[in-house]
Amino acid sequence: MSRSGAPTPMIDVDSTLEESVVTIRFRGAVTNREFIDLAATIANYESTGRIPVYLDWVGIDRWAFSVPTAGGVTAWRRARKIIARAAIVHQPRLNRQAAWLAAFLREEGVQVRSWRPQNAAAAATWLRVV
């Protein structure tokens, strides 16, 4: 919870941290519903072109992941049309989630790399390389 007593969001989207990079931080327990909602957020992102996305999964405590249902797959199909490159920074215990998302995004030609937390700076640099 935040200082005001409001619940802290599990997923935080910030497009101001790095120039032209959308940073998405996951915290706490992530649900499949939140994962699908994230796809809708990305798909509705206002941009003149495809965007680089930095997925910071370091703060995830738990995630009972399952492959999204048809509605979730549709949401991620829309999102991947917006994403140019994606860097997924995560602990090894989230390899399954990262592998699914990377494979799914690559079907649309998105460049995706998975990074360990100690290489987070390299991931951010890779996203900015044209």
Keywords:
single chain; 130 residues; alpha/beta; Transcription Regulator spoIIAA; 5 strands
Low-confidence stretches: 1-9
Q: Which radius of gyration do the C-alpha atoms yield?
A: 14 Å
Q: How many E strands? A: 5
Order of helices and strands: EEHEHEHEH
CATH architecture: 2-Layer Sandwich
Helix content: 25-40%
| First-residue to last-residue Cα separation | 39 Å
CATH fold topology: Transcription Regulator spoIIAA
> Can you tell me the CATH superfamily?
STAS domain
Characterize the main sheet. Answer: 5 strands, mixed
Pairing-aware structural class of the strands and helices? Answer: alpha/beta
Characterize the overall form.
globular
The number of helical segments is 4
Strand coverage percent: 25-35%
* Residue-averaged pLDDT: 85
At the first level of CATH, the class is Alpha Beta
Number of domains: 1
Record the strand order, biggest sheet: 1-2-3-4-5
What does this structure look like?
The longest helix has 12 residues, at about 30-45. Helix 1 packs parallel to helix 2 (about 70-80). With about 130 residues, the chain is of the alpha/beta class. The radius of gyration is 14 Å and the shape is globular. The protein has a single domain, classed as STAS domain (Transcription Regulator spoIIAA, 2-Layer Sandwich). The chain has helices at about 30-45, 70-80, 95-105, 120-130; strands at about 10-20, 20-30, 50-60, 85-90, 110-115. Strands 1-2-3-4-5 form a 5-stranded mixed beta sheet, sandwiched between helices.
